[in-house]
Design brief:
This protein is of the alpha/beta class. The protein is built from 19 helices and 9 strands. It starts with 19 loop residues before the first helix and ends with a helix.
């Protein structure tokens, strides 16, 4: 049986991205037409039945988020699509925006109808500036054909989508920082509560969902929540776009149903296809730089949110970065920590200074200068950062480190003894270079 099920990626590579005609020929906008004949709460109930978990990384139940916003009486309400895909190793939203933007637009329009919102915003990361032209063309063509703008399909409902862009700040992937950036403020996280459903964009009730989350809405409305749920597991409905990269044969974006195993993802010929150069799998990094690293012993873990969480892992953004035995754990963690040092907004001390201190200790390990006290300090510092950082960036910055300390403690001990199992560290010093 195929491990690939194409629901939201079915059109990719088959249609002209900005062509409404092509999109309609492949079943596009059937969901919007159906939605206009449904009550808003009926649509929300279908999303709840589908058990669609947020695809941006947090995996919050989308149906619950929609219901919470629906119960708030204040208006206007805003719909915001988070397309600030800044997680290293993640490029699945790029696929949808590049090859099937009208699916995302349709999902946002259905959300606009549910909440009687007249303005939606999509925040596209600065590095995707070329995709902005494609997405804008799709918006313009949808307006020309009556699927966006004033009096959509003669229903009396009017809705517009505006493109906003970032400047490359990773922290703007955090929803409240993203809203601040849209408003022209510094992209720094807000204190919560109040939650964004109550006080969001322009201090009004706001729905913020990920690109992939919105792309699932047309399928849920068309096929129904129960049918969508059946593609996945009892806890995680539907499919997930995963991004395979690193030392693996088949790199790219694949759509898999929840319920496959990590072994399937890495070794199935239709998916990862195994290791690229015949070397042994050493570890794999899940969900982006803020996600945990996993060992080969966990390959039989089922890929769904609950099973992954129970195993101390995370689906996260869908990234799966595969590393072979040539990679040094310490060297890899230094690169991860460098990333967080660069991307920290600097607002809080635990994140701003904590990442720098973690890097210094990792650097000492890579040079054979660290002691047991340094290792103990690193563990303590990691706990403090996770508990006291202002937002998810600092709270998750040491997740990869913590998981490696758990699964690869022997590699840390080896570096204390000036031994690098991968042969990466100490070589220059020993050769006199």
């Amino acid at each position: 049986m195929s491990k690939i099920v194409k629901l939201i990626s079915a059109n990719c590579g088959k249609i002209r991205p900005d062509s409404v005609e092509d999109y309609l020929n492949f079943g596009g906008y059937a969901a919007l037409k159906k939605a206009f004949n449904m009550e808003p709460m009926q649509i929300i109930e279908e999303v709840k039945k589908a058990k669609l978990l947020g695809r941006g990384g947090a995996a919050y139940p989308a149906g619950s988020k929609w219901e919470q916003l629906y119960e708030i009486e204040e208006s206007p309400k805003y719909i915001v699509c988070n397309a600030d895909e800044g997680e290293p190793g993640t490029f699945k939203d790029k696929l949808l925006m590049e090859q099937d933007p009208l699916r995302v637009i349709e999902g946002m329009t259905i959300a606009g109808y549910v909440f009687n919102s007249h303005d939606g915003y999509i925040y596209i990361r600065g590095e995707y500036r070329d995709l902005q032209k494609v997405f804008q063309a799709a918006i313009d063509n949808a307006k020309k054909e009556g699927f966006l703008g004033e009096n959509i399909l003669n229903t009396g409902f009017s809705y517009n989508i505006h493109i906003m862009t970032g400047a490359g700040a990773y922290v703007c992937g955090e929803n409240s920082a993203l809203l601040n950036s849209i408003e022209g403020k510094a992209g720094r996280p807000r204190i919560k509560p109040p939650h964004l459903a109550e006080v969001g964009l322009f201090l009004k009730p706001t729905l913020v969902n990920n690109v992939e989350s919105f792309a699932n809405i047309p399928t849920i409305v068309t096929e129904g929540g129960e049918k969508y749920l059946s593609y996945g597991t009892a806890d995680s409905g539907g499919t997930k776009l995963i991004c395979l990269s690193g030392h693996i044969k088949n790199r790219g974006v694949f759509e898999v149903p929840f319920g496959v195993t990590l072994r399937d993802i890495i070794y199935d010929p239709e998916l990862g296809g195994g290791m690229a150069e015949g070397k042994k799998l050493k570890f794999f990094h899940l969900g982006g730089q803020s996600g945990p690293c996993s060992s080969p012993e966990q390959l039989d873990t089922v890929y769904c949110c609950r099973a992954m969480r129970n195993a101390g892992l995370s689906v996260g953004s869908g990234a799966v970065v595969v590393l072979d035995e040539s990679v040094c754990i310490i060297d890899y963690l230094k690169k991860v920590t460098e990333f967080f040092i660069h991307e920290s907004c600097g607002k809080c001390v635990p994140c701003r200074e904590g990442n720098k201190q973690l890097y210094l200790i990792l650097d000492k390990l890579s040079k054979g200068e660290a002691t047991e006290n340094d290792l103990a300090l690193m563990k303590r510092l990691s706990r403090v950062m996770a508990k006291s950082s202002f937002c998810g960036l600092g709270q998750a910055a040491s997740t990869a480190l913590d998981s490696c300390l758990k699964h690869f403690s022997s590699e840390f001990e080896a570096h204390l003894n000036k031994q690098c199992p991968a042969g990466v560290c100490f070589t220059k010093k020993e050769s006199g270079e």
